[in-house]
Structure formats: C-alpha cells, structure tokens
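Our preliminary data section would be incomplete without showing what the modeling component actually yields. Below, a chain of 161 amino acids is followed by its predicted structure, encoded as tokens that our downstream tools consume directly.
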Amino acid sequence: MGTPAVILTKKERYSPEKLLADSIVAAFHSDASLYFYNNKNYSNEGKFSYTTLNINNKSFAENNESSLIFYIHSINSLSIDFYYHEDLGLDTNLLLCQVGHIEDIYGNQELIFNFIYEYLKLNPDDYFWIADYDWVYSWEDIQKLKSLPYDPDWCYKNPKN
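Predicted structure:
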C-alpha cells in the first residue's frame, strides 16, 4: 500500500457531481489524460457509494509514465469523514470532509502537482492533504510552489517551512 492523498472541502458544499466536473476541468487544464467510464459502485443497500477516474500524464494509447486512480465518494460515504483538524493545524470549527481520494502518490508527484494546482485554482478554499504527513497544502501554498522551479519532492515537504 502506498501513500494516499485527499482533497479536503467544506462538507456543506460537497457534491460528487461538482467534484467530478471540477476534476474533468482540472485534468483538461493540466494537460493530463482522463478516463471516466461512469462505472458507479453501490453499497449493499443499493445507494451510490463511489466512482473512479483514471488520470494519466500521457494519452492512454502511449506508454504511461504516470497514472493515478481518483475516487469520488458519495456524500453519505463514511470514507469522507474527517477528524484530523488539530493534527494538521486546521481550524476545528471547519466542518471538512475528505473527497477525491488518490491511492498512491509515489511516482505521480508531477502529475498530481499539475492536477492539484488546476483543481485548487477552481476551489481555492479546499486543501490537499497527503495522509502520511501532518500538513496540508492550500491554494496559496500551491501557487507559491508553482512560482518556483519544479521540485519532484514537493509533496514530502511542509509548505510552511
């Protein structure tokens, strides 16, 4: 199992449809290839649970150097609950949820950086969190990193340092 990452957003404004739409736009603007089959997964009760996107740094016909699976969960999924505000230095009054799960960041750092930059440009109040670390990336953090020469280890470094 690799290092997962997620997008954090305010729970009251989360919509799987909006996340899907914004992910498509972010992939488009980051020059990534996106594959969405509209394969919805359902719970035992027959309710929508999640769907997935495949995001690649090249076209699907080419040999992919970098590829990730991006999960979009239902608003009612237990997978979106978030409890780590204090650990990450976030305001405990923010009612956040974990959306846009990425299975593994390793080997996908540049693809993720470009995608997250475009996603946060659309959603500047959201955060990007790599689950093994005690910090998040805000829109301001990602903008600052974008203004610097690309660092392949960006996601392993606290943006506040």
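The mean pLDDT is 90. Residues 87 and 134 are 6 Å apart (CA to CA). Preliminary results of this kind motivate Aim 1 of the renewal.
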